[in-house]
Amino acid sequence: MPEPDEGARLRALDQRLQELRRNEEGPPRGQASHRQAELGWRMVIELVSGLLVGFAIGYGLDSLFGTLPVLMVIFTLLGFAAGVRVMLRSAAEFQARAAREGGETKDEG
After folding, report:
1. In this structure, is residue 12 part of a structural domain?
2. Is residue 104 within 8 Å of residue 72, measured between CB atoms?
3. Which of 1, 61, 75, 89 is buried deepest, with most CB atoms within 10 A?
4. Degrees (nearest 5) of the Cα angle 62, 77, 85?
5. Within a 10 A sphere around the Cβ of 43, how many other Cβ atoms?
6. What is the pTM (predicted TM-score) of this model?
7. Residue 16 — left, alpha, or beta (φ > 0 → left; ψ -120 to 50 → alpha)?
8. Residue 50: count of CB within 10 angstroms of its CB
9. Looking at the 3D structure of the chain, how many domains does it have?
């Protein structure tokens, strides 16, 4: 039979091993896929909103000045360019966050 303090030592060792295993596993796979889906939807929304805002401004100005469809086309293209720019900024932000999180777990191990 193990001595009482030997049993406590074994439980403490088991607890430390479980903590180390949890730290090595990282976030569950489901969370990572949710983040990627969130990023994908965010990028789509940013692009579409840029297009819609550009279209609305162009259409409004065209209606005001009677130059239909010149300004609408120009502002729709500007809205597209702004949407792509914001999408690229979001992608860079996501990569920086992933690099930070990846670097932290590598340093701990």
Report:
1. no
2. no
3. 75
4. 135
5. 18
6. 0.64
7. alpha
8. 21
9. 1
